[in-house]
What does this fold into?
Amino acid sequence: MDILKTATDWAKAEAFSSSFFIIFGILFVLASAGFWQMGKTDMARAYIIPTLVAGALLLTIGLGLFFTNKARITQFEKAHNANAPAFVEAELTRAESTLKEYKNVVFIAIPIIIAACALMILFMNTPVWRASMITAIALLVVILLIDGTAHARIEAYNKQLLLVEKQVKE
It folds into this structure.
């Protein structure tokens, strides 16, 4: 099994996946512009800032992940050629750490925050608060969807790393 190819394929898939953060970020910014240009009611005008902020956050996340994963592809080859067993060990440590973060942040914290925002919608009567909570829920759902697929990829990558580690030790 060629772990360098597996690692490179994983990083390329992550770079592609991060482009969805960018796409959704652009959509949120466009929605903000739409609310700004065409919003006639207080509720519609209340969405301008929250959707702009959500779009900026998604663009920042997407661009950061894209460039990080692009750089990682060349680093993988250098690290693997320098010391393959150390590369596997470092990647295994990073993948396991990332899986723990996904478990805590993506699959526990984000659903709790979504539920809290949904409850706040019931109790907040001002348009700005309602628009902010609805936008926050939309933002978090986008993150949950994209990170759900990223979790599946890193889990499969981690299994491949464990197999290679087993082979190296034998």
